[in-house]
Design goal:
3-stranded antiparallel β-sheet; alpha+beta; 8-stranded mixed β-sheet; single chain; 17 strands; 16% helix; 5 helices
């Protein structure tokens, strides 16, 4: 079976929503455009942000601990949505829809998040745009995941897990289950674009949340460790040769 690019996923706000794309242009040594371009700081994160900022916006990469994250609230994992007609449209099962211009409506997003946020966690404060992109890794990497590995994990756990809890960028159909783990250090091609596979994606407890309900439905880290002897799912890769990629493009290694 020929491997193909099955899904392109982008998350305009870190940990909050996500959208599918038909095509995108990748640039060498850059992240996926528009992915994690925005993030919501917390009170704890403000200390790091204010130590280095220009015009009120952080001007350097900040660690994930500075931001609203699904690991602190499963309800945040159930937020979906992305760009529509120049605005971000966000949905959550227990909330009304929110439509915002992120340049001007950050306060509305923070208020919308408050009912989803645990009282004992550092409270959300403001929406910020990244000097870089707010991925968990400081390096300009893109995540690549396998539909066959997901199917194998679903079969072994006995439950549907879906794409969205993993917050991956590129999903490949046609690899053998877990074949991506053997690609570290290799260059793969998606159409005319070349990417060097750099590292396994280590997972956190946020992946235990069902993204339809906002409730934890599995201990994902325990399941991965018990079934496979590790807590990874997917790989990171750096773009070596840029260009356009589209759904259905052939993937070769």
């Amino acid at each position: 079976m020929t491997a193909r690019l099955a899904h392109i996923r982008r998350h305009p706000i870190k940990s909050i929503g996500g959208e599918g794309l038909d095509r995108i242009t990748l640039t060498a040594a850059r992240r996926l455009p528009g992915d994690r371009e925005w993030a919501v700081l917390t009170e704890a994160g403000e200390r790091n942000a204010q130590a280095s900022q220009t015009a009120g916006q952080p001007d350097r990469w900040l660690p994930k601990s500075c931001f609203v994250r699904g690991v602190q609230s499963p309800q945040v994992q159930a937020i979906s949505g992305g760009w529509s007609d120049g605005r971000l449209v966000l949905r959550q099962p227990t909330q009304g829809d929110l439509v915002i211009d992120p340049d001007n409506d950050g306060d509305r997003l923070v208020e919308w998040l408050r009912p989803l946020w645990p009282a004992n966690a550092s409270a959300p404060t403001r929406l910020v745009r990244g000097a870089a992109i707010w991925t968990d890794q400081k390096w300009p990497w893109i995540s690549i995941l396998s539909l066959a590995s997901l199917a194998d994990l679903e079969a072994r756990t006995g439950q549907a897990l879906g794409l969205h809890r993993w917050r991956g960028n590129l999903w490949i159909d046609g690899w053998q289950p877990w074949a991506e783990r053997a690609l570290i250090g290799q260059v793969i091609s998606i159409g005319s674009v070349e990417l060097r596979v750099t590292q396994h994606v280590g997972r956190c407890a946020a992946t235990s949340a069902n993204t339809d309900t906002g409730e934890n439905d599995i201990d994902m880290l325990d399941s991965l460790e018990r079934l496979y002897g590790h807590t990874d799912f997917g790989v990171f890769a750096e773009v070596v040769t840029g260009g356009d990629i589209s759904l259905g493009d052939e993937v070769t290694a």
